[in-house]
Design goal:
The complex is a heterodimer of chains A (347) and B (70). By secondary structure, chain A is α/β, with parallel strands linked by helices. Chain A contains 14 helices and 12 strands. In chain A, 36% of the residues lie in helices and 17% in strands. Classes of the chains: A alpha/beta (347), B alpha+beta (70).
């Protein structure tokens, strides 16, 4: 099966100019490495990774703010495990936890409600990080907390939206991309139609190696036939309209705001903040803290790596001072970060 | 971070389902998928069911893959 798909890709790519396709999902990045897809593609078909890991694009200032909260004696921080090792300006949450802060790793945002109920004297703050796949689970948790009268649970949102980032990439003259492998589980929520604004060949892809190869065949076929469409190769779970219940909940609880992406900068209307109606659950409104913004200078090239301009091997830190145990840049931190995937599968 | 896995709904109580995958059972909220039924395969992310897996489409995909394999 695998070989037949690769052969089809070779046939379609033959005689074509060099082509670059970008995957915009950390889970795709890992699947591509695990199956060795980069290595078996014809030399004129290159796969580059985009800003597909929400942890990696969370900025220093957010981590600094989380640390300020974590160091308050009456605060419990609840977070997905990926966030623990993301370094802020000076430290990461794992270090702060080792120094005695109460930081709990959760599986589902709903776990925060249990923690809040068990600790009525504490403020529980959930680090709400994620793309459209995860944001509805936070929205549902906020609605549950409200309906159950939970008053000591708060949310620090750095949730982000994928389509504005893709639009930014297409408008960036340094970025050269001939097609997108679109994130399958983001598309489960927002639907294929939400990507229809893209004017280059794009395909929603599943996560098995065969599904990724099938998506690449789709992109090459489009280029072969001179088409530039947004298509769906993950129809078992991705619908044209997406999950309308989840979308309704997102718009009920959150509003879109300009957001800072680490290494990339501000992208207009690419973030989700809590609506006024849910201000009682907004950590920044209920427990405001002053966090100075510090511009850290480092030779880390995560910003260019996240835009597919250079690969991790072009970074002077990669594999030397920056590795998964001592991550300097955010792309090395999460297992789904581009540098972490390169490191794990290239060394 | 957007990892999700398919599992079968074996029980529903209010908006909480018990889902099973490879013999392992765990809870999943149906708040984002209120129409899901017992017996459905659903995609689970962060403790929530987010979509029903369309088995017909899975079969069609396998047929497409099979056709390339000849």
């Amino acid at each position: 099966m695998f070989n037949a798909l690769v052969k089809k890709i070779e046939q379609l790519a033959e005689g074509k100019r060099p082509l670059r396709f970008m995957e915009v999902c950390g889970t795709h990045t890992v699947s591509i490495f695990r199956a060795g897809i980069r290595q078996i593609l014809p030399p004129n078909v290159e796969l580059v990774s985009g800003p597909g890991c929400p942890v990696c694009v969370t900025c220093d200032e957010y981590v600094d703010r989380a640390i300020v909260y974590a160091q308050m004696p009456d605060v419990i921080i609840a977070t997905f495990g990926d966030m623990l090792k993301v370094t802020g300006t000076y430290a990461n949450l794992a270090e702060i936890s080792a120094a005695g802060a109460d930081i709990r790793v959760i599986y589902s945002p709903l776990d925060c409600i249990k923690i809040a109920k068990e600790n009525p004297d504490k403020h529980v703050i959930f680090l709400a990080v994620g793309f459209e796949t995860t944001a509805p689970t936070t929205a549902a948790t906020i609605l549950t907390a409200k309906s159950q009268g939970v008053r000591n649970l708060f949310f620090l949102s750095a949730q982000k939206l994928v389509p504005p980032a893709l639009e930014m990439l297409l408008n960036d003259s340094e970025v050269r991309v001939d097609g997108f492998l679109l994130p399958g589980h983001v598309a489960v929520v927002i639907g294929v139609n939400a990507f229809k604004f893209l004017k280059i060949p794009s395909v929603v892809a599943g996560f098995e190696a065969e599904e990724i190869l099938l998506a690449l065949i789709n992109l090459l076929t489009q280029i072969d036939e001179g088409r530039a469409e947004v298509t769906n190769e993950y129809k078992s779970v991705v619908k044209p309209e997406g999950n309308l219940t989840a979308q309704k909940m997102l718009s009920q609880v959150f509003c879109t705001v300009d957001a800072e992406w680490r290494g990339i900068g501000e992208i207009s209307q690419s973030g989700l903040a809590l609506n006024e109606e849910f201000a009682d659950f907004d950590a920044e409104k209920v427990l405001p803290v002053n966090v100075p913004k510090i511009n850290r200078r480092t030779p880390c090239r995560c910003g260019e790596i996240l835009r597919g301009i250079v690969t991790p091997k072009d970074c002077p830190l990669f594999g030397k001072v920056c590795d998964p145990i001592h991550a300097v840049g955010p792309c090395m931190v999460s297992v789904e970060g581009i540098c972490a995937a390169w490191y794990r599968f290239s060394f | 971070m957007c990892l999700a896995f398919p599992a079968k709904i074996v029980e529903i109580k209010d908006s909480l389902a018990t889902v099973e995958r490879s013999g392992v059972k765990r809870d999943a909220s149906l708040m984002l998928l209120p129409d899901a039924k017992i017996g459905d395969y659903v995609l689970i992310h962060a403790g929530f069911a987010i979509q029903v897996v369309d088995e017909e489409e899975t079969k069609l995909r396998d047929e497409v893959l099979g056709a390339i394999n000849v």
